[in-house]
Write a structure and sequence with these properties.
By secondary structure, the protein is an all-alpha fold. Helix 12 (about 215-225) runs antiparallel to helix 13 (about 230-240), helix 16 runs parallel beside helix 18 (about 315-330) and helix 18 runs parallel beside helix 20 (about 355-365). The radius of gyration is 30 Å and the shape is elongated. It has helices at about 20-25, 40-45, 50-65, 75-85, 85-100, 105-120, 125-135, 140-155, 160-170, 180-190, 195-205, 215-225, 230-240, 250-260, 265-275, 285-295, 300-310, 315-330, 335-345, 355-365, 370-380, 390-400, 405-420.
């Protein structure tokens, strides 16, 4: 196996060479690191100069002090790769030296090093890890080759990645597994190659692998990006027929497709499925549905959405949902239904999302000439909701129009107190 990777970058495979020219100028930055946490070692590394001696001394000192798990270096690479990729690489080099000096024969830590090399878009180091591992007698497995493939795909090198696949396919000891096929489908999904996605998906099935939820995710998101909603629906239904529950990314994609098509029956079926399977919509999905139903003026559907999600969403989103229901009832002058929704909002110790919600309520009372009910509403919210200037203007105009002089006088006194005279 020595030198197995030499010349792969120059090699080509006929079935995938068509991608080469289209991808050659495409660049993708590494994923953003998660928020930094209180990590003394990370803080020290960030303050050190970009020097091999300084970085490796800091890591050695931390190991000598103890109380570190075996994977402590991984979050360091993730945190450093955007702010200081040089330091991130030095961490990887330090880890490789440790593995080689300790004659570690387990291929898993080498696979991790290759994976993180890909996150740094540093293919030469990934190959160095492979060759170093091999020189110590560590036999590569499918996970090692999968990491190499992903590293090459991270720089859009489809040619080398497919050559690695062919090496796996011809081998006896590190055959392609489902993760191998998922890697190619994920890559082609991001780049919008519908035929490529389908071909690799079919190849995985021909190789005897059952589709995973991640494979369906890559397919569904890929076709959503391409606007091929029939394919989104096809693979969503196929996934369900295979008794695979969708993850959150798939649910988001399916809902986005349904909303774009304004498929009310499809959305109803989707929500029933979510409810039956005890899945959860995230807050962004609920807010999407609120906007969709508000634009379509579908208050009954908002009520159904409330029943499904009221125990799963935070109070801010729940308040937005109730305010949407209130506003639609107000626009239709359905005072009883509107007041019932207001009661649910206020009894839950929530408040209106914005002044327009209150303005809609007041407008409905004026249209129905329900002045006593308006008084009760204003008394109910007095003390913990501050009326905006726009709301006072609506009240002034309404009291003048209906010649409610006593109420107008009291309102003006209130306006003086709050500085809106």
């Amino acid at each position: 196996m020595a030198g197995i990777l030499r010349g792969l970058a120059a090699a080509g495979t006929p079935r995938l060479n068509c991608f080469r020219q289209r991808l050659i100028h495409t660049g993708h930055p590494p994923p953003s690191p998660p928020p930094l946490t209180a990590n003394p070692l990370l803080a020290r590394l960030q303050s050190e100069p970009e020097s091999e001696r300084c970085v490796k001394t800091a890591l050695d000192d931390a190991v000598s002090a103890g109380q570190l798990d075996e994977s402590f270096w991984e979050p360091l690479v993730v945190s450093l790769r955007s702010s200081s990729p040089t330091k991130a690489l030095l961490v990887l080099e330090w880890k490789l030296e440790k593995l080689l000096n300790e004659y570690i024969q387990n291929p898993k830590p080498y696979s991790k090093l290759i994976y993180f090399s890909g996150s740094l878009h540093n293919i030469p180091f990934a190959i160095r890890v492979f060759n170093s591992m091999e020189s110590k007698g560590v036999k590569p497995n499918s996970a090692i080759f999968n990491s190499l493939i992903n590293a090459c795909l991270s720089i859009d090198d489809i040619v080398t990645s497919s050559s690695l696949f062919e090496i796996m396919d011809r081998s006896e000891n590190f055959k392609p597994d489902l993760v191998t096929y998922e890697s190619f489908v994920s890559f082609l999904s991001k780049h919008g190659y519908s035929n490529g996605m389908i071909n690799w998906y079919l190849a995985s099935k021909k190789a005897g692998f059952s589709p995973s939820v991640k494979l369906y995710e890559y397919l569904i998101l890929g076709f959503l990006r391409l606007g091929k909603f029939d394919q989104v629906n096809h693979f969503f239904e196929e996934m369900k027929s295979n008794w695979i529950l969708p993850n959150l990314a798939i649910l988001e994609a399916k809902l986005e497709a349904l909303c774009k098509f304004k498929d009310l029956d499809g959305i109803k079926e989707f929500l029933n499925f979510v409810n039956d399977k005890k899945l959860r919509l995230n807050e962004a999905m609920v807010e999407s549905l609120i906007k969709f139903y508000m634009d379509m003026e579908l208050v009954d559907q908002l009520e159904t959405l409330l029943d499904i999600t009221k125990h799963d969403i935070n109070r801010n989103v729940l308040a937005k949902l109730l305010c949407a229901i209130i506003k639609l009832h107000a626009n239709c002058n359905k005072l009883d239904e509107m007041e019932n929704a207001i009661k649910r909002l206020l009894d839950g110790e929530m408040i209106f999302s914005c002044a327009k919600d209150v303005d809609a309520i007041i407008g409905s009372y004026f249209r129905r000439k329900s002045f006593e009910r308006l008084d009760l509403f204003l008394d109910r919210i007095r003390g913990y909701y501050r009326l905006e200037k726009s709301t006072y203007d609506i009240l002034v105009a309404g009291f003048r129009r209906f010649e409610l002089h006593e109420r107008l006088g009291m309102l003006k006194m209130d306006m003086n107190l709050v500085g809106f005279a």
